[in-house]
Here is the input.
Amino acid sequence: MANCIHGWGCAYRTLQSLCSWVHFQQKQTSASPRHPPTIADIQKALVEMQDKPASFAGSKDWIGSVEVGLCIDYFYDVPCKIVHINSGSEIPDKIAELTEHYRSIGSPVMMGEDTDNSSKGIFGVCGTGNDSYLLIVDPHYHGTVQDPQDLQQNGWVKWQHVRDFKSDSFYNFCLPLYKQ
Here is the structure.
């Protein structure tokens, strides 16, 4: 289970990407930073925190932004801020907050939503307000990268305009609040 990513929810992979970022930051100042958790570690932690029932461990149940935040705090002692957005049409209203997050903290952000049940890693912001783009890393990619340009050409890494998000979906951003 620890090494197989097929059939698992994409938020697990987004969480592992955020954990990799925290691991790299801690590696700069700690002799033994914690490696990113496995899916089994994540599920066990959520059960231990009493966020999930015992039957969750070993299941293929999905997680979302709230569970991602709980796990980053659990594994790395890094609190997270959850930013709830009622509709994709409100994302432009949060661009200044995301921009400040990247300027002051720099960590990637997890984005979850309800209508397509798909998490996304947000690794940057370009623009202001309604004329903004989010740098999206799609956690559904698997395989070996032969040419990094293939990731962009196939849409696995892309700049997505804020008006392209669904107005009939809510979104939750999970912002790790890592302090050096």
